[in-house]
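#random but structural
TW: two for the price of one
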Amino acid sequence: MSLVVEHLEGTDFQKSRAFSPAVITSGGRTVWLSGQTATQDLDGNDINWDFEKQVRTCYALIDRTLKRAGGDLSSLVWTTVYILDPRHGDQLVKLRAEHFPGGRFPCSALLTVSAFARPGIVVEIQGIGVVP
């Protein structure tokens, strides 16, 4: 059986927040992704406390892991995103939209937390992917 992925059409609000109301899959393999955080970018540069750079790095790390499993970032069907500062919510939406062109967004939950395991971390992204 081949992999089929269907993103249900979202409301205008859901589209504006860059998430799908549901993603339906059949076939394929499910990939459960551990939460990703980053205090260094992929080149080893310090990105402590830098929300945008940490989000971009987290998505790059998720993409890297999904590629190891036979997919890529477009294979992501669910994310849970934890942020330290609720004022970063709108910025997260813009960054997420950049990573999922064409409106094929993963389903998502966004939560604000009081702290992370290490100082300097401001976001953590975990997810579920479906790969062929």
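TW: number two ↓
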Amino acid sequence: MRALALVCSLNASPADSSSHHLAEQVMAEFARHDVRGEIVRVADHDVRPGVAVDLGDGDAWPALREKVLAADILLIATPIWLGHPSSVCQRVLERLNAESSETDDEGRPLVSGKVATVAVVGNEDGAHKVSSDVFQGLNDIGFSLAGGAVTYWVGEAMHGTDYLDLDATPDAVASTTRALAANAVHLARLLGEHPYPAS
């Protein structure tokens, strides 16, 4: 079983990223369930704006899309900016929107049976709003959501501490991340054995 994390930080590598840090923690929890995969920082790639599978002329999305289609579990990790997912996250959702018209031979979306999860970081409240925005888009496209499919950390309003700068992961974040991984892997295995019916 494979997982793919798309980190939607505004910063390309090698810049520090709290979203990337939380994605690493989620992937470590997946590994405890024998799920392997990779982390991709989207800002490192030339993903063009649009809602098509391939926009040509050096568009990096088709290669990332292949990774999405090869994964059983997708993690979208995003910071909160002005109460919303990052612009990079929005672009990923827009590009994934093309999957709405891509189906298998039985009429199911190509992402049917894949499980989506979300990780959110920020320095103010808004994690529930951001995760609901991302969840709705992913579910519309055809991804399934396990119970507790989000982990997040937000500090108090108007402070400057990043998740990456914490001395230790808060217990509540660690236990939520563990539950996300366990539930997502469980659902992905069930869907692998019992696919959704044809549309």
